Amino acid sequence: MHIREARPEDNHELIELQAKCPQGTELIVSVVNTPDFFARAKAYESYKVYVACEDNRIIGSAACAMRESAVNAIPCRVGYEFQYFTSPDHRGRGVARALHQHIEDYLTTRDVALAYLLIMEGNLPPRRLFEREGFRLHRTLVMPILSVYKEMDIQSGGRIRPVMWEDLAAVARLLNHTWQGHDLHETTSREALARFINRTPAYSLTNVIVLEDGGQISACLGFWDWSHIARITVKSLSFKMRVIGMLVDTIRNFRPMPRVPKAGTTLKQWCLTPIGFRDAERLTPLFRYMNNRAMELGVEQVFCLCERKHPLLMGMRGLFRRDVAMHLYVKPLQQNVSMGQNPIFVDGIDL
User: Fold this and answer.
1) Structural domain that includes position 149
2) Both 164 and 74 in a single domain?
3) Could you say which of 46, 84, 106, 153 has the lowest number of CB atoms within 10 Å?
4) Largest distance between two CA atoms of the chain
5) How confident is the model at residue 239 (pLDDT cuts 50, 70, 90)?
6) CA distances, 252 to each of 7, 77, 249, 255, 270 (Å)
7) Are strands 74-86 and 57-71 parallel, antiparallel or unpaired?
8) For residues 331 and 115, is the Cβ–Cβ distance under 8 A?
9) For the chain, first and last CA: distance in Å?
C-alpha cells in the first residue's frame, strides 16, 4: 500500500469507491461527491486530497485543509482532517491510519500547530482510531438540523436582500464581531470573502442574504446547496427511525409536520455559511426567509454547527429543529499549543 496525492484523473474511481462506503447509524446514507469529487475540498483556500493505493487501485481516501486561526487566543495555523473512507474489502488493515499519518506529516512540515476533526455522535470506529492516534475529545458541539416543511411568517423590521460586492467589507466586520474570541475562528476580510465566493463550487453572491437596518447590515446568513456537489441518498433507517417516520406520517393527517426520509430518498440539504449578527434576534427573519426560499426549491433540511448554548440558536426560534451531537477532536502538533475554555467556531464547510 502506498499513499499519494489524488489527481483529477482519479475522479471517477473515487466516486465509485465513495458510493460503496455509506455512513451513519440511525439514518444510513450514501454521500457521493459528484460530478466533481474534489468540489467539497475546493471551498478551502489551502487543501490536499490523498488516496491509498494497492495494485494500482484506490482503496481509501482522506483530505485535509489549513488556515490561519486562533487557538486559546494565540494566532497559529490549524489543520482540519475530513472525508476519510476506506474500501469495504480493506477495512481493518490500517488504511485510514496510514492516510492520517501521511496527512499529519504534511501538516507538520507546513508548521501547523494543531489538527482537528469532527465525528458524529454514535460513530465509534473513527473515535477509537483517532484516539489511538493521539486525538482527544475537546468538546461536544451541536449540529442543529432545521426541517423545512411549511412557510413561515416574516417580520423583519428591516430590509432583507442579497449581499452585494460593495457589502463585503461590512459583512467581514460583522463576522469578526460575531466570532471574536472563539477558538478556530479565522479573522476575515472583504478580500477573503470574495475569494471564498469565487472559489467555492455552486456558491455566489446570491447564496448570501443580509438584513439591513437604517443603512447598516445587522445580520447575514449564507447557504451552500450540497445537492450541487454531492448526491446524498438514504440507504436504510434504524428501527427507531422507521417508527418515528410512521408516527409523523400519522400526525401529518392533522397538522403540518416534517417528513422522515425513506430508503431510496435523495436528500436536498443546505449547510449555512457564513453566519453573522450583532443581536441574535436579528437572525430570526433571515432564518425564516431562508426557510421559505428553501421550501420553494424543494430543500428539506438545513444545518450548521455551534456550541450547545450559542446565541445563534435563539435566532432559530419558531423553526422545527433537531439537534445532533458532534464531537470535536483535537491534537496539538507543536509544544505549548492547547485548546482552552474559549467558545468554538466551526465553519459550515467543515460539515
Assistant:
1) 145-229+259-325
2) no
3) 153
4) 64
5) confident
6) 48, 49, 5, 5, 24
7) antiparallel
8) yes
9) 29
